[in-house]
Amino acid sequence: MERLAIFGGIPVRETPLGYGRQYIDEDDIKAVAETLRSDNLTCGPKIQAVEEKICEVTGAEYAVAVSNGTAALHLAALTAGFQEGDEVIVSPITFAASANCILYCGAKPVFADINPETYNIDPASIEKLITPRTKGIVAVDYTGQSVEHNAIGSICRRYGLTLIEDAAHAIGTRYQGRPIGSIADMTCFSFHPVKTITAGEGGAVTTNDEKLYRRLLRLRAHGITRSREEMVHPTDALWYNEQVELGFNYRMTDIQAALLVSQFGKLEKFAARRKEIVAGYDAAFAEMPEIFVQREIPESDTVRHLYILRLKPEALNCDRRQFFDALRAENIYSQVHYLPVYWHSYYEKLGYEKGICPNAEKYYEEVMSLPLFYGMTDADAEDVISAVKKIVAHYRR
Asked: What is the pLDDT of residues 169-207, one digit of tens each?
C-alpha cells in the first residue's frame, strides 16, 4: 500500500491544487481596460449591457445588476416585503447570506432539512414548517443543481408564498429545459471569482414581474428615483431626483460589468468543461463503496459550481478531518461547504439549537469540496482522483 504524504510518503502532486479559481483571458482584460479608458466607470452603458446579457442567458424579463450576491439576496428579500413578525423558510446547507438576508429585513429564518441524496432543500420538510406567519421561501440551488421547482412552486401557490431562488451556484443550469433565473419570483446570482463566471465581485436579481423590477432598481440606488410616476412631488426638471424609500448603494460598477459581459461569452465552454470534470469524478467515485456520489434529479441540467466528496464513515477508519488533512498533504486543497447556518455562533445567540435538521447535520460531518474549475487540466483531475483513491485505500475498513 502506498504511504500517505501525511505520514511521510510522496504526495500525489508537487504543487497545491485549490478547490476553485477564476479564468481570465486577454479578452477580459481588454474589456476592462476599454472601460477604464471610457467616460463611465459607474452608472454607465456597461450596466445596461450586462443586464441585457443576463436576461438573454436566463430568459428573465428583467435583471438588476448589483455589487455582490449578498446584496442581491438582501434586495430580493426587501422587495418581497419580508418584515418583523414574518417567517421565511430556507436551507441550512448554504452560505450564511441566504439566511442573513431574512434577518436584515427583521424576519425570522426557519430552516428546512435537505434531501440526503441531492443536498437541496426538501419540499416535504418545507411544507411541515409552514405557519400563518410564513411569507416566503429562499430555495438554494446548492452546488449548481436546481431545486425541485415543481414541488416548491406548488407549495408557494398553495400558501401564497414568495419564492426567492438563491442561484449563486447555478448560472447556466436549466430545469426542465428552462434556464434558472426565469422560474422563481426573484432569482439571485453571484459572480464571485470561484463561481462559473466572475465580475470580480458582483451579483444580480432577475424577475419576470415589472413591479418587483422597479422596486429592485430603486432599492439598489438609495431608494431614489428619477421616474415621475414614482415621485411624491413630480416635476419635469431634468436635474430632479427624489428619495421615496430607504434604499442602499448596491450598484455594480461599469468595470465589473465589462468583465462580466466578457465572461458571459465564455459561459458555454466553462459549463462544458465543468461537466466533463464532474463526469470523470462521478465515474471514478461510483466504483468506490466508501464514497457517496451526489444524486442529480433528472429535471436539472446542472452546471456544477461545487463537487462534493461525501464519505461513508461506516466504511472508513477515519473521520472527515483526518481525510481532509490527508488530502491536503497530497497537495489537493479541498474546502467544506457548509457549516449548517444555525450552527454559527451568531445564530446560537438567536436561540437556534442543534438537531433541527438531522439530514443537514449528518451531511456536514461527512463532506468536503474537491477542486472544480475551468482551468483544471485532465492531469489535475486525475491527481484529485488518485489522491482520493490513495487515502481511501489507506483508511478502508
From this structure: 999 999 999 999 999 999 999 999 999 999 999 999 999
